[in-house]
């Protein structure tokens, strides 16, 4: 009963910061109870749902989808690109995104993005680089920090580090975007693949941003 009361008080914002730190029942890791980030100008607190009895009831609770097209993807989308899990994604947001060095990219179509996404993520639909348009790639890469030299060469030295995700291990939208990024020369060492995507993020009860309800 005491836990329930604390959970309600926490949810309603009735406790101060020092008390809140003491009563986080479900932390992200032993040393990380939560983090803060910014999503479209709004400060967002990323933490896990504090109710230990919470269950997924939406589309991400689904275990089986027809394959093809919803086949499980291997751990590596490319041998030279780092695959990360949820803790690494949390640290990427905390350390890279919040410092301006990194960007989280939601590779799904916009309809998915506005329904629900990971805080701080920007939407770059996987279809953007599918048409073989180098000019589109240039415009995107410049937004991500790439510079065009006087001789026309693309300089990625100050380009952002990227963490790319989609719906989960059965979703091919982020692998397809990553392959598009590679095709046009984005450095592999600056790309991370969050393979678990939205399904893993939600399975662990982490904060999401909803712009448009179903």
Give a structural overview.
The chain is α/β, with parallel strands linked by helices. The chain has one domain (50-203): 3-Layer(aba) Sandwich (Oxidized Rhodanese, domain 1), CATH 3.40.250. It is 29% helix and 15% strand. It has helices spanning 2-11, 17-22, 86-97, 110-115, 134-143, 173-183, 197-203; strands at 35-39, 42-46, 82-84, 102-106, 122-123, 147-148, 154-155, 161-165, 191-194. It has a five-stranded parallel β-sheet, with helices on both faces. Strand 1 (35-39) and strand 2 (42-46) form a beta hairpin. The protein starts with a helix and ends in an 11-residue tail after the last helix. The model is unreliable at 1-20 (pLDDT under 50).
Structural class assignment: alpha/beta
Helix content: 25-40%
Q: Provide the spatial order of strands within the biggest beta sheet.
A: 3-9-8-4-5
- How much β-strand is present in the residues? 15-25%
Please describe the topology of this protein.
Elements: H1 2-11, H2 17-22, E1 35-39, E2 42-46, E3 82-84, H3 86-97, E4 102-106, H4 110-115, E5 122-123, H5 134-143, E6 147-148, E7 154-155, E8 161-165, H6 173-183, E9 191-194, H7 197-203
Parallel strand pairs: 3-9, 4-5, 4-8, 8-9
Antiparallel strand pairs: 1-2, 6-7
Give the key terms.
214 residues; alpha/beta; Oxidized Rhodanese, domain 1; five-stranded parallel sheet; two-stranded antiparallel sheet; 7 helices; disordered N terminus
Summarize the structure.
With 214 residues, the chain is of the alpha/beta class.
